[in-house]
């Protein structure tokens, strides 16, 4: 049994570094295309299907089964595609403040208007580039200065096309148990939007009193939730 960890937008697999030592089972943190081990990919060419294929490749390379699949933030629109690719390998789905817009909509249409303005200002030539100032405001409200710096140092450019691509949520119709970790101090994927995602998925819900990057600001708390789900 293993955890497979999928990062959100503007980060790579290293966003899970603080969490992994607290997990009670093997953990595979995947770099999606354009980040970390897959950095040599043109950001303008990346699709959600490419992201799901990256997860499948890494899981199959290690022949992982009975997986607890954990997705943070923007991973909420990659995960259903993963569920369609390797459903027999996945035992439980955990969504950490995950973006789950209405099926066949675009992520950019669903986010908070104030956050959307910051996002749109951060797009140029097909690349989504978060400034340190904007990221600090949205992501680091529950962190001290040192932790904030550590988060901002891990920011990565991302594909703007992913924000505009029509999402396919059909994988969530599969009969695989799921839990939504609701982050009560999240200033990025705000309360109203988390509740919309919860209403769409009808998962079990667990509250954590953290901001958006719980795996960094409160790794022991998030690990406790994940370890309990893993069993």
UniProtKB/TrEMBL annotation:
GO molecular function: hydrolase activity
Record keyword Hydrolase present: yes
Family matches, as InterPro entries: AB_hydrolase_1 (IPR000073), AB_hydrolase_fold (IPR029058), Sec-Metab_Biosynth_Hydrolase (IPR052897)
Coiled coil: none
Pfam family, one: Abhydrolase_6
Official protein name in the record: Alpha/beta fold hydrolase
Swiss-Prot/TrEMBL keywords: Hydrolase
AB hydrolase-1 domain segment(s): 3-224
Lineage: superkingdom: Bacteria
The keyword Hydrolase appears for this protein: yes
């Amino acid at each position: 049994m293993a955890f497979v960890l999928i990062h959100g937008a503007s980060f790579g697999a290293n966003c899970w570094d603080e969490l992994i030592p607290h997990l009670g089972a093997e953990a595979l943190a995947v770099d999606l295309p354009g980040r970390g081990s897959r950095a040599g990919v043109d950001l303008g060419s990346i699709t959600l299907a490419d992201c799901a294929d990256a997860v499948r490749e890494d899981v199959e390379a290690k022949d992982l089964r009975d997986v607890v699949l954990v997705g943070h933030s923007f991973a909420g629109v990659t995960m259903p595609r993963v569920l369609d690719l390797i459903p027999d390998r996945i035992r439980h789905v955990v969504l950490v403040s995950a973006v789950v817009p209405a099926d066949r909509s675009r992520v950019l249409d669903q986010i908070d208007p104030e956050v959307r303005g910051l996002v749109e200002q951060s797009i140029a030539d097909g690349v989504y580039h978060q400034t340190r100032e904007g990221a600090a405001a949205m992501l680091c409200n529950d962190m001290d200065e040192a932790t904030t710096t550590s988060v901002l140092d891990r920011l990565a450019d991302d594909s703007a096309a992913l924000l505009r691509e029509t999402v396919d949520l059909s994988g969530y119709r599969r009969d695989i148990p799921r839990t939504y970790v609701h982050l009560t101090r999240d200033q990025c994927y705000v309360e109203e939007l988390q509740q919309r995602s919860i209403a769409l998925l009808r998962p079990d819900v667990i509250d954590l009193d953290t901001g958006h990057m719980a795996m960094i600001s409160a790794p022991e708390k998030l690990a406790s939730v994940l370890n309990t789900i893993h069993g």
